[in-house]
Please model this.
Amino acid sequence: MFHRRVLLVWFISSALALGQSSPPSSTASGATTSSATIPIRASDKQGNPVTLSKSSLTVHSGHQQLEILDLKPAKDTPLRFVLLIDLSESDTSKLTFEKKAAQEIFKALSKPGNQGYIGGFNQTVTISTVPMQSPEVSAALAEANAGGGTALYDAISQACDLLAKGADSPSVRRLLILITDGEDNQSHVTPSEAAKLAERAGVSIFALGFPSRYLSPIGQSGGPSGVSVLKKFANDTGGNFVWLEKSTDFLEPLLQPLDSQYFLTFKSAPVPAGKTRDLDIKSADRSVKLFAPSAYATH
Model:
């Protein structure tokens, strides 16, 4: 995968936490309550960002309606992100594009206050252990080679573990960017388990997908199952998904939704450690499409 020298570069040179909660507190009656905060955004039928208000939203977990405590724009909140590139055999023919896309995305997100990590995966996963700068990322990607199987879900799991560190730190948005065809044949965790890990860590998944050389175009018989997998990861975590069948402009469609994200905070009963509760958020305006996690955790 990445050469030993590049790995040494990674290891040597190289908060209102999303989906997290405030510590539990006791009410006058002695009942324990806490609050959870998640990322959320909305668009109209044409995909244009929509301004949200507390009064326009309702939050339910199961049959229980949860009280909304706060809703505020998240655009200026720092990002803590991991960018993962697919280095499996199925993506060999797309490696040049993947490297270029990764460099452009990392550079676009490398703003003051943000922290970015880079990683690659085939049947194994390698992620930098410290934040990196754009020149370091370019050097690492230049020596990346493709080959082997694909452990996409394991890669998501490990990236979420890294992003979850420092969950009690001040305001930060947690973001995982995937560049992949969405296929997996080597992981030890399931897609559902990987999504739950992202939800517990408060990570929004933004995926840039494209067909590998072994996959037929969208809409034809035997089309890529990776499309539905990446869409579900994005939908379940309040993220975004862009699918490319050729190397076209992708940066704005993929990253622009970050500018229209909000933090939504609501009251919640504590969730057992390692567990999540289902979440259903609706807008009073039926023409509005919401992008928010389908579950949340408290800690």
About this structure: The chain has two domains: 4-13+76-258, 32-69+262-296. Residues 1-21, 26-31, 214-224 have pLDDT under 50 and may be disordered. The helical segments are 4-12, 95-109, 134-142, 152-164, 191-201, 226-236, 251-255.
